[in-house]
Design brief:
The chain folds into 2 domains: 1-284, 2-Layer Sandwich (Aconitase, domain 3), CATH 3.30.499; 286-462, Aconitase, domain 3, CATH 3.30.499. The chain is 32% helix and 16% strand. The chain has helices spanning 4-11, 37-45, 76-91, 107-113, 145-154, 179-190, 205-208, 212-220, 236-242, 251-261, 311-324, 344-347, 350-360, 378-386, 389-395, 445-454; strands at 13-16, 22-25, 28-31, 56-58, 95-96, 122-125, 139-142, 156-159, 163-170, 198-203, 229-232, 274-279, 286-288, 296-298, 339-342, 370-373, 421-424, 439-442. Helix 2 (37-45) packs across helix 5 (145-154). It is globular.
Length: 464
C-alpha cells in the first residue's frame, strides 16, 4: 500500500515529534558557495564539527566564470564566495571539487554523473533545484541555510511530511518533443502552484521511455510547479546509468544495492493524495511567453488572450506582457531573438548537447545571435569532445564555454542585457533572472538550436 516516496521517507525517520515535524536522516548533503557560508559560520560559532563529513560534498558553481577558470576570478563578490567555500571545506574536512578540478561542475549535474546520487537516498542542498536528484529514485529537496547547518551538525533535518502526487504521462512522445517540453507542458496546465505541498512521482509510458538525462530534466523542474520535489522509480535505465560510476557500489556491494533498489517502486495498490494524468500526444515542442515557467505554450500556438480572466489574473498577465513586449493573441514563431543559452542544471548534460548539435549540423549560427553553450560539468565537456560534437558546433560557428551555472541566473559574468530576448534551456524566466531587464523564453535544446541557426523562434521539427 506504500508509494515510492513513503518507502524512502519511512526508512529514514529517526523520530517523530508529537504534533510537530519529523526528524529525518540525510544520506547526502551537497554544498555550493552561495547558501553555505552562514551555515559554516554558525558551526564555527558553536564550536561544532560536521557529524558525518564523508556524507558532504562541496563545489562552486553559481559564481564560477565560464571562461579563463585557470585565472583569478575578476568579480570580487564571486571570488570571495568561491574562495570561502574552499577554505570552509578544508577547515571542516569535507570533499571539495574546486574550479578546474575535473570533477567540478554544476552540483546537480555532478551528483548523478559521479554516482554520488543513488536510488533510495535522502538528499538535500541549499538550492531549490535539488529536486533534480529525484530522477534517480531518491527523495531530494532544497533546504534553507539554517537547515544546511542542521544537517552539517547532526546529519538529520526536521521536516514536515509532504503529501504525495502521481503525475502519469501515457502514450508515446512525438517528434522533437523532449523531457523539457513535457515539464513545460505540465506547468502550463497545472500552473506554478499546482503541486504546492506535494512530492511528485512521475509515471507512465512516456516517462519510462525517457533517458536518465531526460528524467533529471523533468525532476529538476518539479520545483517550478511548487512541488517539494519530484521522483521517478528506478529501473533498468537507472541501474545501467549508475553502473561503473566513480562513487557507485562495486562488486558484492553492487549486487546487494541492486537487490534493494529493485524494491523501490510504488506498490500496485498504493494510494496517492492526488493523481494527475496527461496524454503524450497532446504535447508539442514548448516555449514560454511570460515571466513565470507556467506561462508556456506549444510553439505553433498563440499567446492566450485575456478573455475569461479574472481581474487579478488579467492585471498580472498584462504586466508580464508589458515586460516581455508581447501582445495577447500573438504568434511567437518568426520573432527575432538575440541570445541563446544551452546549459544549466536543467539542460547542461551530454544528451542536451547531442540534441543541440543534431539541429545545427550543416547550418551556421545566425549573425544576430549571441550563443552561450555551457556544459554542466567537466565530465560533460570531455564527452562532447570524445563524441566530436565540439567539431560540429565549431563548424557551425559556436564556441563551448567552461562549466558552471552561467546565464541561468545573473550571478556571474554571463548576463543577458536589458531588453534582449534569450531562448534559454534553463529553468526560470522571472523578470531580471538572466540579467536586469532581460527577457527569457524557456525552451528545450532543440528549440534553442533552431533559434540559434535561424535567428528567430522556429519550430525545431522543421529542421529535424
Amino acid at each position: 500500500m506504500n508509494t515510492l516516496f513513503d518507502k524512502i521517507w519511512d526508512a529514514h525517520v529517526v523520530q517523530k515529534v508529537e504534533e510537530g515535524p519529523t526528524q529525518l536522516y540525510i544520506d547526502r548533503l551537497y554544498c555550493h558557495e552561495v547558501t553555505s557560508p552562514q551555515a559554516f559560520a554558525g558551526m564555527r560559532e558553536r564550536g561544532l564539527k560536521c557529524f558525518r563529513p564523508e556524507k558532504i560534498f562541496c563545489m562552486p558553481d553559481h559564481n564560477t566564470p565560464t571562461h579563463d577558470q585557470d585565472k583569478p576570478i575578476e568579480d570580487p563578490v564571486s571570488k570571495t564566495q568561491v574562495d570561502t567555500l574552499a577554505k570552509n571545506a578544508e577547515e571542516f574536512g569535507l570533499s571539495h571539487f574546486g574550479m578546474m578540478d575535473k570533477r567540478n561542475g554544476i552540483i546537480h549535474v555532478v551528483g548523478p554523473e559521479r554516482g554520488l546520487t543513488l536510488p533510495g537516498m535522502t538528499i538535500v542542498c541549499g538550492d531549490s533545484h535539488t529536486s533534480t536528484h529525484g530522477a534517480m529514485g531518491a527523495v531530494a529537496f532544497g533546504i534553507g541555510t539554517s537547515e544546511v547547518e542542521m544537517v552539517m551538525a547532526s546529519q538529520c533535518i526536521l521536516q514536515t511530511r509532504p503529501k504525495t502526487m502521481r503525475i502519469t504521462v501515457n502514450g508515446k512522445l512525438g517528434k522533437g518533443v523532449t523531457a523539457k517540453d513535457v515539464a513545460l507542458y505540465m506547468m502550463s496546465k497545472m500552473t506554478t502552484s499546482g503541486a504546492t505541498g506535494y512530492f511528485v512521482e512521475y509515471a507512465g509510458e512516456a516517462v519510462r521511455s525517457l533517458t536518465m538525462e531526460g528524467r533529471l530534466t523533468l525532476c529538476n523542474l518539479s520545483i517550478e510547479m511548487g512541488a517539494r520535489g519530484g521522483m521517478v522509480a528506478p529501473d533498468e535505465t537507472t541501474f545501467e546509468y549508475i553502473k561503473g560510476r566513480e562513487y557507485a557500489p562495486k562488486g558484492e556491494a553492487w549486487e546487494k544495492a541492486l537487490a534493494y533498489w529493485k524494491t523501490l517502486k510504488s506498490d500496485e495498490d498504493a494510494v496517492f493524495d492526488k493523481e494527475v494524468r496527461f496524454a503524450a500526444e497532446d504535447i508539442e515542442p514548448m516555449i514560454t511567453y511570460g515571466t513565470n515557467p507556467g506561462m508556456g505554450m506549444g510553439i505553433t500556438q498563440r499567446i492566450p488572450t485575456t478573455e475569461g480572466m479574472g481581474e487579478t489574473a488579467r492585471i498580472s498577465f498584462m504586466k508580464s506582457m508589458e515586460y516581455m513586449n508581447f501582445q495577447p493573441g500573438e504568434l511567437l514563431l518568426g520573432k527575432k531573438i538575440d541570445y541563446v543559452f544551452l546549459g544549466a542544471c536543467t539542460n547542461g548534460r551530454i544528451e542536451d548537447f547531442r540534441a543541440f548539435a543534431s539541429i545545427v549540423k550543416g547550418h551556421r549560427k545566425a549573425e544576430n545571435v549571441v550563443a552561450w553553450l555551457v556544459p554542466g560539468s567537466w565530465m560533460v565537456d570531455a564527452q562532447i569532445r570524445e563524441e566530436g560534437l565540439d567539431k560540429i558546433l565549431e563548424e557551425a560557428g559556436f564556441a563551448i564555454r567552461q562549466p558552471g551555472c552561467s546565464a541561468c541566473l545573473a550571478m556571474n559574468d554571463d548576463k543577458v542585457p536589458a531588453g534582449k530576448y534569450a531562448v534559454s534551456t534553463s529553468n526560470r524566466n522571472f523578470e531580471g533572472r538572466q540579467g536586469p531587464g532581460s527577457r527569457t523564453l524557456l525552451a528545450s535544446p532543440l528549440v534553442a538550436a533552431a533559434a540559434a541557426v535561424t535567428g528567430v523562434i522556429t519550430d525545431p521539427r522543421e529542421l529535424v
